[in-house]
Amino acid sequence: MTSMNNEQLAIYNFFRSLIKACLFLLIVNCTLINAQQRLDVIVLDAGHGGKDPGTIGDATGVQEKNIVLPITMKLGRMIEAKYPGIKIIFPRSTDEYIEVKERTRIANENRSKLFISIHANHKKKEESDKNGFEVYLLNKERFPEAVLFTMKENYLLSYQQAGKDTLDNYIFSSLAQNGYTRYNEYLASMIEMSFLSYTELATRGIIQAGNWVTLGASMPSVLVETGYLSDASDEKYLSSEKGQSDIATALFHAFQSYKALYEMQ
Ligand SMILES: [Zn+2]
How far is the CA of 82 from the centre of ligand 1 (A)? Predict the structure, then answer.
């Protein structure tokens, strides 16, 4: 092989540097693409259904299950129209009974990135009148319980692979990596703001609940009590086409903000 002259050497070095730079950029690019989270699967959960009517309206006898289903389906259609790439799972899309555990199981099994459960509330007998919407989050103090539940239901295999000693670290870090609480809190505040902008309902605030249905969901999740069926005005609004559309619109806008934040990370 003849040795290169200076000019050839310079060209050779130039191309070598160029290839190195391209490889470097390619690796950086791949890392960035891999790091970006996609909100590609979500669960929209209409509460109750079938033999479980949920709560009953005082004035008209309207059943919660029949209010939350159209709201959930409207929300789904809005998301579908704007983001056709997102897989939307409805644990129920008709008037059927599905156990609470089954709903979160479906969410976990499909690796859903978000779980929104939609309900309507009723004051207890002894309580004075209440109205407006509430957004429920899982209480941080129940994390150990949620972790145990999650472990039993979903992570048994990972647990076996990770080994006993690292169990807590494994589960906690996977929850932390998912930004579990931060995302929950952001989503809840987006929902509250959005309800105030798009619906006629008053806010009763964001509540860290001690006991609620999405305990088993291993992804950011909220439960929305859209209003009180024991309040005549809320009942009328929630039963109306306008009220149901307003609530779906509010949830849609909150979802959009949440999606933007989630995918920015
Ligand atoms: Zn309910």
Answer: 28
